[in-house]
From TrEMBL:
One of its GO terms (biological process) is dGTP catabolic process. This is Nucleoside triphosphate pyrophosphohydrolase. One of its GO terms (molecular function) is ATP diphosphatase activity. It catalyses: ATP + H2O = AMP + diphosphate + H(+). Its EC number is 3.6.1.8. The lineage of its organism: Bacteria, Pseudomonadati, Pseudomonadota, Alphaproteobacteria, Rhodobacterales. Pfam families: MazG, PRA-PH. It is an enzyme of class 3 (hydrolase). It comes from Rhodobacter ferrooxidans. Residues 37-110 form the NTP pyrophosphohydrolase MazG-like domain. Belongs to the nucleoside triphosphate pyrophosphohydrolase family.
Length: 269
């Protein structure tokens, strides 16, 4: 099968992408790798691409963002193509579903409700409409299992807090963190590996709760901490390289001093 004009049309827009995806999945003339994929095999790429979009935004890499958003859009098109092949739904159904949802959840824009409200009030209204859409479901139902663990913990806690299951102040959360940390330290030599993991998970869950009380996104905070750690450790490697050494040739005392030096350079710079 020859290349179609639409596949190479730079102004083909979304129809071009849909056409390309269909060609890739063609059982006769498509790509062997694309043909054998299914929802489960593609899902990890979907998650990965979403994180790469977030990473580009965090780095303010605006020149990279179009490409990253394109990669994420491809994931939606990929799933829709596989669904169409199986007779589940098509891409138009995906567009219709999100369009209907946006209109229904913004009655102050597309309906008769007043726009005279804060962003916080709109968030509360959004959740109220979502709850009505879910119907008589449990408070925690619908929080996706596939979310990153910190994000899912945050969503579970927010759901519980809406019905009053929450500590009233940050001080009580801090007290619980101290309690959980002490329990973990005191019992680390007597617990089984499974029990130790459970206690550590409890501590992470409470730390997430602290972020929520401080109005911080724990996933974003940890991502920023990862970036900071990477940046400072690379600086350690740079200095060691200038000394003709690698981290493996160094020791904790030297590297800890270089870490402090990297911190000081960042603050003075």
């Amino acid at each position: 099968m020859t290349t179609s004009p639409l596949a190479t049309d730079p102004d083909g827009g979304l129809p071009r992408l849909l056409h390309i995806m269909a060609r890739l999945r063609d059982p006769v003339s498509g790509c062997p790798w694309d043909i054998v994929q299914d929802f489960a095999s593609i899902a990890p790429y979907t998650i990965e691409e979403a994180h790469e979009v977030a990473d580009a935004i965090a780095r303010a890499a605006w020149d990279e963002l179009p490409g990253e958003l394109g990669d994420l859009l491809l994931q939606v098109v990929y799933h829709a193509q596989m669904a169409a092949e199986a007779g589940y739904f098509g891409f138009d159904d995906v567009v219709r579903a999100i369009s209907d949802k946006m209109v229904a959840r913004h009655p102050h824009v597309f309906g008769t409700e007043s726009r005279d409200k804060s962003a916080e009030q709109q968030t509360a209204d959004w959740e109220r409409i979502k709850a009505a859409e879910r119907g008589p479901a449990g408070v925690l139902d619908g929080v996706a299992l596939g979310l990153p663990a910190l994000t899912r913990a945050l969503k579970l806690q927010k759901r519980a807090a809406r019905v009053g299951f929450d500590w009233p102040s940050t001080d009580q959360v801090l007290d619980k963190i101290v309690e959980e940390a002490h329990e973990l330290v005191e019992a680390r030599d007597s617990l089984t590996a499974v029990e130790l993991a459970e206690e550590y998970g409890d501590l992470l869950f409470v730390m997430t709760n602290l972020g929520r009380h401080l109005q911080l996104d724990p996933e974003a905070c940890l991502r920023a901490a990862n970036t900071k750690f990477t940046r400072r450790f690379k600086r350690i490697e740079e200095v060691l390289h200038a000394r003709g050494k690698t981290p493996a040739d160094s020791d904790l005392t030297e590297m800890d001093a270089l870490w402090d030096q990297a911190k000081a350079e960042e603050k003075s710079g």
